[in-house]
Design the sequence.
C-alpha cells in the first residue's frame, strides 16, 4: 500500500510476475477495495493472486518504533506476519525501510547466532555481481557484526555461482594499518576465518570494479557509498542531457546517438538491480526501492523467488552452524 | 619529489604557473641535481623559480609517524618549514597525504581554538561550487570538530562569493532524528550558531546537487563519498568506452561524437578541481592529488595562490575570534 508510488505498481508487478512464473502464488496485502479495483484489468494471472485485506498502512514517514507499536493492522505487518505463519515463503515491500526492518526483526527474528540482519544488494560491476552489505540497517556495527555480514554475503555470492568468493572490507585505504579500531578488529576476524577468502581492504572507488564478490561495511558507510554513486550517475546524466540540448547541432547528435544512450541507460538502469535482501532473518524479506516502477518491483519479486528457491535463509543458518 | 609521477610534473607546472602569474615566486624543494635538470628546458620563468635542495624524500608508503620522526631532511618537510619560517606563503605537495598533514600540524599548527585541520575540496555541482570537508584528515570526529569544519568551510564559500552559504551536514537521511549521536549533537551546534545558515542534513546522493555551499562530515564518510563518486564516474566512462568500440558502427558513432565526449570529459575533468586545502592551519597548505598531471598540479598551485591572496587562514582565525 505504501512506497512512493502506491499500490498500483505492486499490483501490476505482481500480475506480470504471476504470468512469468507459474510456480508462484501471490498474496497481495492491503486495502481490499483498492486492490480489487487494480486487479480487475488483468484476468490471466487471477488464479495465482489472492488479496489479503489490511485496513491500515505504514507511511513512509512513520518512525519504526511507532510502526512496531501501532501498525499491527497495516499491510506491511500482515504481509510479514503471513511469512511468519508460513502462509508465504517471502515478503516483498516498497514501503518504509526502517519499519519493514523493525517489523521483520520482531516477527521473523534472526537466527540465534546472528545479532542483526543486514541489508544486502547486488551491484552491477565491470565483471561479476558484487554483493554489498550493510546498506543501512545498522548505523553502528561491531567487528563481530561485520564478520557476520561477510559470512552471510558469502552465502549469497556462492548461491549465484561464485566458487571461492573474494571478500573485501570497505575502508579509506588499502594499507593494513588503515581505518578505525572496529575495522581493524573486523580485519582480524576475517583473516582468521578459514571459511572466508578474505581479500583485504577495499576503497569506495573500487565498489564497481568487480574485484570482490562481497564487500562488507557498516550501514552508515554503505548508505553513503551507494547514495554517492547514485548522485554521481545522476549528475553525469544531467551533464549529458544539457550538452545534447544546447543547440541544434548537439540536438542532432542527440538523435543520432539515442540508441546508444538507451543501451547505456538500460545497462546502468537501477530497476535492473532492485531488491535488497534482509540477510540474517529466518525467512526471506526483500525491500524494493521506494520509488520502484513496475519493472523494478518485478525485479524485487524475482530476487525474492530466487532466494526462496535457493533456500538462502537455511544456507545462512548452516553457514553459522559450521562455526 | 614524490607523488605518483615524480618531480617532473611539479616542475613543469611550476614553470607554467610562473609564466601565468608574474606576481608569484616559487621555491621548488627537492633533489637539486634532478630539479636543475628538469628546469633547464624552460628559461622564461627562471627568475621566478629558486631551487631549494633537500637530500631526502617522504615516500607514498611512509607512515606519517615515521615521516614525522625521520624525514626532517625531506623535500616535504623543508617545503612546509619554508612556510613556517615565512620564506613562503603557501606550500603545495602531491606527496603522501598523511605525512603532509602530520608535518603541517607539527610545524605550522592550527589556530588555538581549532582542534584539528580538515581537508576541504571544491566539488563541481549542477549550480555553484560546493565545499566538502573533511575528506580524510580525521577518521573519528566529535560534534565540536564538525561544528568547526562548518565554520571553516563557510569562510572558503564566502571568499568565493557566497553571501549566506547554506551549510549541510552529511547523514543517511534528512529526517531530524536520523544519524549517530555525534551527528545529532553536531546538528544542535550548527542550528544554534547564529553565524551559520544551517540547511539541515544532506544525503550523499545530493553531493553534486549544488543545493549547499558547504557540506560537512567526518573524514571517513567524506573519503567514502568522494571515492565512491570517483569509482562511479570511472565505471560509467568504461561502459561508454566499451559501447563505442563494440563494432564498426559504434566506432563510427564514437568518431562522430568525439567532440561531445571531449567536452563532457573536460567538464568532469578531476584536474580542473585539483587542490585540497588543509583548513584550520595558520598558513596555507594545499594537497595536490597523488596522480596529478601537469595541468592538475597547476590547478593546485592556482588554489594555493588564491587562498594566500584571500588571506584564508587569517579569515578563519577571525571567524573563530567572533565566537
Sequence:
Amino acid at each position: 500500500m505504501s512506497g512512493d508510488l502506491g499500490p498500483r505498481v505492486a499490483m501490476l508487478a505482481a500480475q506480470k510476475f504471476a504470468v512469468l512464473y507459474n510456480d508462484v502464488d501471490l498474496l497481495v496485502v492491503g486495502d481490499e477495495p483498492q486492490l480489487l479495483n487494480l486487479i480487475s484489468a488483468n484476468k490471466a494471472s487471477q488464479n495465482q493472486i489472492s488479496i489479503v485485506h489490511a485496513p491500515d498502512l505504514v507511511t513512509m514517514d512513520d518512525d519504526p518504533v511507532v510502526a512496531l507499536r501501532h501498525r499491527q493492522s497495516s499491510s506491511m505487518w500482515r504481509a510479514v506476519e503471513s511469512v511468519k505463519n508460513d502462509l508465504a515463503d517471502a515478503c516483498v515491500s516498497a514501503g518504509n525501510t526502517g519499519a519493514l526492518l523493525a517489523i521483520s526483526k520482531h516477527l521473523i527474528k534472526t537466527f540465534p547466532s546472528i545479532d542483526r540482519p543486514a541489508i544486502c544488494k547486488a551491484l552491477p560491476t565491470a565483471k561479476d555481481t558484487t554483493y554489498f552489505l550493510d546498506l543501512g540497517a545498522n548505523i553502528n556495527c561491531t567487528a563481530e557484526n561485520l564478520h557476520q555480514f561477510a559470512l552471510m554475503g558469502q552465502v549469497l555470492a556462492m548461491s549465484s555461482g561464485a566458487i571461492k568468493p573474494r571478500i573485501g572490507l570497505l575502508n579509506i585505504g588499502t594499507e593494513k594499518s588503515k581505518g578505525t579500531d572496529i575495522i581493524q578488529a573486523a580485519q582480524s576476524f576475517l583473516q582468521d576465518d578459514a571459511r572466508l577468502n578474505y581479500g583485504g581492504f577495499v576503497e569506495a572507488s573500487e565498489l564497481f570494479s568487480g574485484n570482490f564478490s562481497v564487500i562488507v561495511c557498516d550501514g552508515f558507510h554503505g548508505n553513503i557509498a551507494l547514495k554517492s554513486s547514485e548522485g554521481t550517475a545522476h549528475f553525469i546524466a544531467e551533464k549529458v542531457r544539457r550538452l545534447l540540448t544546447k543547440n541544434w547541432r548537439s540536438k542532432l547528435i542527440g538523435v543520432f546517438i539515442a540508441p546508444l544512450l538507451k543501451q547505456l541507460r538500460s545497462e546502468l538502469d537501477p530497476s535492473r538491480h532492485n531488491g535488497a535482501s534482509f540477510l540474517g532473518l529466518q525467512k526471506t524479506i526483500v525491500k524494493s526501492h521506494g520509488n520502484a516502477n513496475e519493472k523494478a518491483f518485478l525485479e524485487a519479486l524475482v530476487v525474492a523467488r530466487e532466494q526462496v528457491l535457493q533456500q538462502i535463509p537455511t544456507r545462512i543458518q548452516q553457514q553459522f552452524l559450521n562455526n
Q: What stands out?
A: Chain B has a mean pLDDT of 91. The first helix of chain B runs from residue 7 to 20. Residues 172 and 178 of chain B are 7 Å apart (CA to CA).
